[in-house]
């Protein structure tokens, strides 16, 4: 039976949960996901945890924030004048911004003041320890 290597095409079910057990994402009730190892679709530390697993294997592993979506970075909090928003705002809503290169950059409205709005540009899972659970369905060596 083929083990997962850096050249593998992998089909799997996965679950991503927070420390308190709250499931953030899962495809166990859906079709399995497929990806090529190293294609950038998964976090490098998640991929590294799959090395050596075979079809039929189930595994669970915990990832510290530094290995997952990074630590929460205070410099990713920005105050923006409320006058720059042409919409009704609510705390927790995600707003799309453009960076200097015109790339889309999502930000979460963290706080709404009278004159400015605090926007959090950290990944929503930054600073969180995550638990990944996987069930390997198929492993193929890619050319």
Automatic annotation (TrEMBL):
One of its GO terms (molecular function) is peptidyl-prolyl cis-trans isomerase activity. Its EC number is 5.2.1.8. It catalyses: [protein]-peptidylproline (omega=180) = [protein]-peptidylproline (omega=0). Keywords: Isomerase, Rotamase. Residues 7-81 form the PPIase FKBP-type domain. It comes from the Bacteria. Gene3D superfamilies: 2.40.10.330, 3.10.50.40. InterPro entries: PPIase_dom_sf, PPIase_FKBP_dom, SlpA/SlyD-like_ins_sf. Belongs to the FKBP-type PPIase family. NCBIfam families: PRK15095.1. This is Peptidyl-prolyl cis-trans isomerase. It comes from Marinomonas posidonica (strain CECT 7376 / NCIMB 14433 / IVIA-Po-181). The lineage of its organism: Bacteria, Pseudomonadati, Pseudomonadota, Gammaproteobacteria, Oceanospirillales.
């Amino acid at each position: 039976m083929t083990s997962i290597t850096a050249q593998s095409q992998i089909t799997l079910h996965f679950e991503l949960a927070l420390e308190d057990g709250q499931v953030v994402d899962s495809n166990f009730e859906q079709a399995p996901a497929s990806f090529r190892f190293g294609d950038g679709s998964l976090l490098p530390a998640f991929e590294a945890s799959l090395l050596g697993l075979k079809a039929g294997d189930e595994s669970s592993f915990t990832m510290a924030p530094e290995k997952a979506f990074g630590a929460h970075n205070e410099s990713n909090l920005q105050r923006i004048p409320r006058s720059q928003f042409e919409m009704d705002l609510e705390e927790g809503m995600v707003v799309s911004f453009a960076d200097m290169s015109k790339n889309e950059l999502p930000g979460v409205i963290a706080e709404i003041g009278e004159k400015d709005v605090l926007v959090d540009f950290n990944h929503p899972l930054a600073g969180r320890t995550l638990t990944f659970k996987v069930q390997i369905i198929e492993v193929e060596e890619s050319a």
